[in-house]
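User: Structure with NAP, tokens only please.
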Amino acid sequence: MADGETGELGRIALNRSDLFREQCYINGKWTGDPTIEVRNPATRGVIGRIPNLGKSETETAVAAATAAFPKWKSETAAARAKIMLKWNDLMVAHQEDLARLMTAEQGKPLAEARGEIVYAGSFLQWYGEEAKRVYGDTIPAPAADRRIMVLKQPVGVVGAITPWNFPAAMITRKVGPGIAAGCTIVLKPSELTPYSAFAIAVLAEEAGLPPGVLNIVTGDAEPIGRVLTEDPRIAKFTFTGSTPVGKKLAAQCAGTVKRVSLELGGNAPFLVFDDADLEAAASGAIISKFRNTGQTCVCANRLYVQDGVYDKFATLLAEKAAALAVGDGLVGVTQQGPLINMKALEKVEAHVADAIGHGAKILTGAHRDSHGGTFYQPTVLRDVAPDALLTREETFGPVAGLVRFKSEEDALRLANDSRAGLAAYAFTRELARSWRVSEGLEYGMVGMNTGLISTEVSPFGGVKESGIGREGSKYGLDEFLDLKAVFVQL
Ligand code: NAP
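Assistant:
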């Protein structure tokens, strides 16, 4: 029984208590002894426990996914779609429960968690619909008595590992296209946020997903990761998380030459030009920088502001940041939750200290918040040195550091001076500049005059060390399909 049944679990107040599971899901069965504690980062209270599975249980899950694959891939796209659309309907119907569970384990404000549930469900709906449009090709052959066709077929069993910052959406962004394509999956969510994953599996079962198509394991990341990257029965490995872990796991995949997709860390530049709509730019920066307390891979991490509007923009942004309500996401109208753990808080503090040590000035924040624990005040720093730690590494916290630039050329040079290449943003009202800058930024995604770039209909992913492959949109489905050329001699 969870310590939290009267405490943390009582506060979550689920309408459907069976959405809270403390066991893993393998071959349609709930299994494993719950031993690892999962805590609410806002209160540090124990929500419950999860199993500490390892190599052998992960191999059992791979065996289940392998056994389920032939039947699942032979289902019609319409049959798969029916289940996926129902699954999305169930997520939407239980939005409040799923959101409360997510806020408790992850810390994000309830309003953001509600939004993430709808966003997460959208990948099930969109890919359910798209499964019906996995068209192949016919190619004019070089000889009159030959025919060439290209078939698209599911890659096979997929190993997936996801992070804690979007506990539902990072799962459905992989599981949606994978299952729609006809693949079966073994998923390891972060041990910090497993309950969203388990609740999604409860609803998958209710929607009619057959046993073995989706399997979820939790426990020691290293041995589980080894099986998912090295087992020859797994055809494809897909990972969302930090760049160092992604590199290591990609290397582990080399031995069995798996298809690999990586959604890794970002270090997004946010450019504000003299001709920008400053109100829109400041609002865009708030959305991009402070959503999920700065813990998104596409968070604006380095804000480059042109000379002519620097002071005005800095004041505007600091006012908006200072007005954000900090607190427990389950209580009141919170806009900023806690950081995920102490390590994250210490990283934020190190980045702020480094910036200040190199001459940055505090406009607002720059201290731990009075809520204690891992709460940190929304922070805006000006006069940040262009080579401060804050600009070189992903901060993953609520800190906006402003760097001054003079020309468009300077801005692009600074923005592109990074090994990360996930998202970038720019605010300008000049049409020609918006095109030059969009094309000049070496990033997988560009938000031009907007801080919001995530939707299921558009490809999400990075270049350089931010990853390989795309999630979302028709391109996301291709990641789970192999091409087969069939030659027919008449
Ligand atoms: P992380 O430390 O790399 O962890 C991600 C996942 O990998 C977790 O499930 C973790 O398990 C697991 N893991 C860690 N070490 C492993 C190992 N040696 N073998 C196998 N699995 C291992 O990243 P995070 O701190 O959770 O997430 C934040 C990072 O994700 C940031 O860099 C962010 O930018 C990136 N991110 C990228 C995207 C994108 O779409 N590009 C989206 C969201 C987040 P445990 O947590 O259970 O230890």
